[in-house]
Amino acid sequence: MTRFFMTIPEAATLVIQSAALEQSVGGAGSGGTGVPPVLSSLSTPGSTDSGGTGVPPVRNSLSLPQGAPVFVLDMGQPVRIVDLAERFVRAHGFTPRLRPAASSASSSLPAPRGTLDITFTGTRPGEKLHEELAYDAELLRPAGYPGINFWAGPAPEGDDVKRISQMVAEMSAVRHSHDRRAVLAALRRYVPTLPAAE
Question: Cα–Cα–Cα angle for 56, 62, 66, nearest 5°?
Fold first, then answer.
C-alpha cells in the first residue's frame, strides 16, 4: 500500500486557514463553511494527494467543533527515516548506499556513479528515537473520526500557572546537579510515568 503524507507546515497551514475562514465565513459544516476551499488546496501542486492516508485525519479535524482546542492526530505506524531516505534517493534515479559515520576509514571512498551515500552520523544529545502519541497520564478522548483524538485536560488557569512556575523553578534548580537521584525525583514529581532507574 502506498501512503501519501503532508508535511507538518502544510498541515499547520490547513488548520490555520480553516480557523481563519471559519471565523470570517461561518462554522465548519454550515452553508457558509470555509472548509471546502481549504480542502481544494490539497489537489494543487505541492500538496498531498487528498486520497492519501495521511490526509483524512487533518481534513476531518477541520470539521470538528471548537470545543476541543488541542487535536492529536494518529498518523499511523512509525516510519524509519532510513527507509524514507532510501525511497527518496531511488525516486531521484540513484542507488542508495548506507555508510557509517565519517570516522570510518572506508567512508572517504567516493560513491560509484549513480550511487548516493546515506551517512549515519549518530544521535544528537537529547534526540528521541521513539515518539509517543500521548503519555498514559494524559487525557485523550476520541473526536468522532478515525485517527483523531483531542486532549481533554483543562486549560491552564491561575493555580496551573503557579504549579507550572513551581515546576520550572524546581527543574532549574536541579538542571546542573550531579545528584542523579535528586534529578530523577524532581522529574518523577511531574512525570509519574517515568520509568524507574536501572
Answer: 140
User: Could you tell me the residue ranges of all domains in the chain?
Assistant: 8-73, 81-119, 157-198
Pick from 58, 67, 56: nearest CA to 18: 58
What does pTM read for this prediction? 0.39
Label residue 40 exposed, middle or buried (CB < 10 Å: 0-12, 13-18, 19+): exposed
- Residue 26 grid coordinates: 461561518
145 close to 61: Cβ distance less than 8 angstroms = yes
Q: Helices (DSSP H) in the chain: which residue ranges?
A: 8-25, 35-40, 55-61, 81-91, 158-174, 180-190
* Residue 95 burial (CB count, 10 A): 13
Q: What is the pLDDT of residues 68-109, one digit of tens each?
A: 457 777 777 777 888 888 998 899 899 998 887 665 555 567
